[in-house]
Structure formats: C-alpha cells, structure tokens
Amino acid sequence: MKTADLIDDHADKLSLVHLPFRRFGKAPHFAAPVQTVKCFEDNTVLRAQLERPGEGRVLVVDGGGSTRIAILGDMIAEMAIKNGWAGLVLNASIRDSAEIDQMATQVFALATSPVKSAKEGWGKAGCDIHIGGVTIAPGDWIYGDADGVLHSKVKLV
After folding, report:
1. Whole-angstrom distance, CA of residue 40 vs CA of residue 19
2. What is the chain's mean pLDDT, rounded?
3. What would the DSSP string read from start to end of 72-134?
4. Contact residues for 26 (Cβ-Cβ < 8 A; gap 6+)
C-alpha cells in the first residue's frame, strides 16, 4: 500500500518521520517492523545489527543527523540484503550511493559523504530513538516509499 493511501486511511495511527530524506535503492516500498540503533559517526553497532538475520525488519538509525561522515556503504548495504533486512532509515549519511541505488533495497538517508565512519564501537541497539519529530521503538512499524516515511506503534497492513 502506498504511504499516501495509508495515511489517508489511518491518519490517527501514523506519524510522518519529518526529515529531508533522499531515497536510494530499487525496492519500491517497505512495510515492516523496526529494529533501532543510536550512533554518531560510528557504524560498528549498525553493522553488528545488519550481520544478524533481519527477518524482514527495517533498521532505523539515529545517526545524530550527521552529514559529514557516512555510516553505510555498499558492502554493508549488500550484507543487509543478504541477511533479510527490508531496508534502512538513517538520520545520517551514506556513501557508495550510486551502487546502493542499484540494489534491491530501500534506504532513506539525509545525504551522501565519501568519508567512512569511525570503528570505535560507539552506539546502542534496541533503544527508543527520536528522529524527525517521532519516537520510534523496536517492534514499532515503519512504512516507506517514494513519498516518504511513516511510523506507527502497530501494524496497519
């Protein structure tokens, strides 16, 4: 279901994740439960999550809004696809954007940067995060397509 139709039918249960996202990947949409990560300019915890079975989930990452450092590149995006993640929503930047844009995934990110992230292990998985005016918890639902990203505490479709 398109996000525009979804919000028309369920506006009382949905919130717009209001960030200036750029969209990458060939997948047309996702509707999936959420796993969360909070990190800043370090993708160690993000990568650790994507190394695990995704089981059709979307990884939603509060990367502190950084546009200086990319926390996702083509190799980690490919690993996410291989491990069954439906997509990613990043309050952060990516690199290898041309390659990611050709992959069978959907990634929402703020920007691109050629600079790779730190590998110090900073971050936390499975916590509530607050991005785009919305608080998102593991197990919540996220819906994304060409029109944007919506959040719900419950599965709608």
Report:
1. 17
2. 97
3. E-HHHHHHHHHTT--EEEESSEES-HHHHHTSSS-EEESEE-SPBPB-S---EES--EEETTE
4. 101, 102, 103, 104, 105
* Residue 129, beta-bridge partner list: 136
What are the tens digits of pLDDT across the range 38-83? 999 999 999 999 999 999 999 999 999 999 999 999 999 999 999 9
Model confidence over 73-118: pLDDT tens digits? 999 999 999 999 999 999 999 999 999 999 999 999 999 999 999 9
Query: Hey, what are 6's tokens?
Result: 């979804």
Closest-CA residue to 7 (of 150, 157, 112, 155): 150
Top-tier CATH class for 3-152: alpha beta
Q: How many CB atoms lie within 10 A of CB 26?
A: 11
Structure tokens at 84: 């069954």
Domain ranges of the chain: 3-152
pLDDT recorded at residue 1: 81
Q: Is the dihedral of CA 83, 99, 145, 65 positive or negative?
A: positive
